[in-house]
Design a protein that fits this description.
The protein contains 10 helices and no strands. It has 187 residues and is an all-alpha fold. The chain is elongated, with a radius of gyration of 18 Å. Pfam families: TetR_C_24, TetR_N.
Length: 187
């Protein structure tokens, strides 16, 4: 692992524990057992760290959505795949996902604009899948906004649950969560 990746990993942990605003570069340096000035040999500052962590996760969601959209499966199967995508990302990027969920509003400039565009596009694509499920009779004819809110509210908090669970419990989550979340909107 490169020194920059070590810094990003340590920063994600600190940001998750304390929040972006409460963490200083000195805190990060102390966690890395190095001098604060040495951090700047690898990274320009907290904003670069934040942008890197959040945009990496946002791009993972985008790539996952792109793969789901290219599949010719039913809307129900696509929604199921998206739920599994959220679980996968929560498992692989637990701390960075926490940072995305709690600190995205601290992004600045182009990174902020990029994140907002990625997020809006993802949500719009998810809505299209849900709408196609309504049109195909797979989902109840209820508000797509309500469906999406319900699904994403649950999915955005998975990172809080996963670190406390065993491998078996995570396997159960992968099997059962899509059924639980989609049963309420299925026709």
């Amino acid at each position: 692992m490169t020194r920059k990746n070590q810094i990003l990993k340590a920063a994600a942990q600190l940001f998750k524990e304390r929040g972006y605003s409460a963490v200083t570069m000195r805190d990060l340096a102390a966690a890395m057992d190095m001098k604060a000035a040495s951090l700047y040999n690898h990274i320009s500052g907290k904003q670069e760290i934040l942008a890197t962590l959040i945009l990496e996760v946002a791009h993972e969601f985008t790539a996952g959505m792109d793969a789901v959209e290219m599949d010719d499966k039913s809307a129900f199967a696509k929604a199921e795949q998206l739920i599994l995508l959220h679980i996968k990302i929560a498992l692989e990027y637990t701390n960075a996902l926490a940072v995305l969920n709690t600190d995205w509003m601290h992004l600045e400039g182009a990174a902020y604009q990029e994140y907002i565009l990625l997020r809006k596009t993802y949500e719009l694509d998810f809505k299209k899948i849900l709408q196609s499920g309504i049109s195909a009779g797979e989902f109840k004819n209820i508000s797509v906004e309500t469906m999406l809110f319900n699904l994403l509210s649950t999915l955005r908090s998975i990172y809080l649950w996963i670190p406390k669970k065993s491998t078996t419990e995570v396997a159960d989550l992968k099997k059962e969560l899509p059924q639980i979340l989609l049963k309420g909107i299925s026709s």
